[in-house]
Specification:
alpha/beta, Alpha-Beta Plaits, Aminopeptidase, eight-stranded mixed sheet, four-stranded antiparallel sheet
Length: 443
């Protein structure tokens, strides 16, 4: 009955408008685990996890009731997240100060002159994003290939394309240079995955003529961007909450039973549906994996885009939790390339000190059908892609005054991703020791 009630509450899009989301601390022990939470179909891959002790996440009231019904002890930290955000209060329950790695001071990045906040609580509405991408193409045609649909053959469930762009010194040509992929907005309620990408793109474009490092990367790599791969879900949040704060996660598939949406980051083909803990078979679940692998047009587009290119490295941006996650997700264990991944992680996170590791080392439980596992694990139809997921920031909708710092916290990860497909090393302050990343595993 409890599961049926949860299904009925989550099934109605109009009811969702009235739902109150809370920040909740869920106590863990040997009989109340992350795996049990995940099996409820809840979103527990975004939050703060202290293994064996607690998990802090953002849940609506029906979900909180379902958690309590399973015997978990809970503590409400912020009763009404939207009211808290509108009052401009920072979510101090989630944010932690992250010291830089001791080898060096974090690099300071200036905010690009062209970067302006969006009108959706500081984040960009969908049309604002499109206008910005067009503005970039108009101002920097020599190093930016204008936005293009991944395909014109099919579209999202609501008829929208998914766009990509390319930054390189000859952007309209296939230069046979190492390729890097950056994606955002797998989940519709994660707008900073878009804003940090717009920030990064502006930074590259504006600094190409003045910053030797930026020029080196743009001249020697091909950087591809998919800023928003879930336009339907994103626009749904924009429609219900035009000032920000919308909490819709999935895409907008009509599941035919009164529920809507598939979790796009459970719909990829590698070990899709491996178990019902790492994804949910229930259409009402936040982690519903869809009726079949690659059933969704959005994941089909990313799949086809990867098959049409030779990406060596990918960053699939999400929020939140201050994590840098790499495969495997579907099982509790490392890949054969774990030495390479675990070497890359500290380089990537050297300025923000994100916790890095595979799934159970970071989020604390398994997922299946996610982007990183497919990009890396599918090696029959393409070469392996060293794919990672940054989980940025303290919450899904940090206040507007936090966005600039969050954008800057991603910059070293983004720039290092481009470096790692070339020759990359770091000089330590003491003794000038050269630390060489194992880029030979990529090239």
């Amino acid at each position: 009955m409890k599961r049926i009630l949860l299904c009925l509450i989550l099934a109605s899009p109009t009811f969702l408008l009235a739902q109150q989301y809370s920040k909740v601390k869920i106590m863990l022990d040997v009989t109340h685990t992350m795996q049990q939470l995940s099996a409820l179909g809840l979103d527990v891959d975004h939050g703060r996890h202290q293994p064996g002790k607690y998990f802090i996440g953002e849940f609506e009231q029906a979900e909180v009731a379902a958690i309590a019904a399973q015997g978990f002890k809970t503590e409400v930290l912020i009763a009404d997240l939207e009211a808290n955000r509108l009052l401009g209060k920072h979510d101090e329950t989630q944010y932690r100060a992250l010291p830089p790695c001791p080898e060096q001071s974090p690099k300071v990045y200036e905010t690009p002159a062209s970067y302006q906040p969006g009108s959706m609580g500081g984040y960009f509405k969908y049309q604002e994003m499109l206008d910005i991408l067009d503005q970039m193409a108009q101002q920097y045609p020599n190093i930016l290939k204008a936005k293009q649909p991944i395909t014109s053959v099919y579209a999202t469930h609501e008829g929208r394309p998914v766009y990509w762009l390319k930054i390189s010194d000859n952007p309209t040509q296939d230069e046979n240079e190492p390729e890097v992929l950056y994606t955002g907005v797998h989940h519709a309620r994660e707008p900073n995955s878009l804003s940090q990408m717009i920030f990064y793109m502006w930074y590259l474009l504006e600094h190409y003529d003045t910053d030797p490092e930026v020029k080196y990367l743009v001249d020697n790599t091909e950087m591809y961007f998919v800023p928003n791969m879930n336009p339907d879900g994103y626009i749904y949040n924009e429609t219900t909450n035009p000032n920000g704060g919308g909490m819709w996660r999935k895409n907008r598939r009509n599941n035919g039973d009164g529920t809507f949406g598939v979790d796009l980051n459970r719909n990829y083909g590698y070990e899709w549906g491996f178990d019902d803990t790492g994804s949910s078979p229930n259409t009402n679940g936040q982690t519903y994996r869809g009726p079949s692998a690659f059933s969704e047009p959005e994941t089909q587009m990313i799949r086809d885009f990867c098959l049409a290119h030779q990406f060596q490295f990918a960053l699939n941006y999400h929020t939140f939790g201050d994590l840098l996650i790499y495969p495997w997700g579907y099982t509790d264990g490392p890949t054969v390339d774990h030495p390479t991944f675990s070497s890359f992680g500290p380089y990537m996170a050297r300025d923000n000190n994100f916790l890095n590791g595979f799934g159970t080392q970071t989020v604390g439980y398994v997922t299946n059908g996610d982007s990183d596992d497919w990009m890396y694990g599918e090696q029959a139809s393409k070469a392996k892609i060293y794919s990672m997921t940054p989980e940025v920031g303290p919450s899904f909708w940090p206040t507007a005054d936090q966005i600039d710092a969050l954008n800057k916290s991603c910059m070293t990860m983004n720039i290092t991703a481009a470096h790692l497909v070339l020759n990359f090393g770091l000089l330590t302050p003491g003794g000038n020791q050269f630390l060489d990343a194992p880029q030979g595993s990529i090239l």
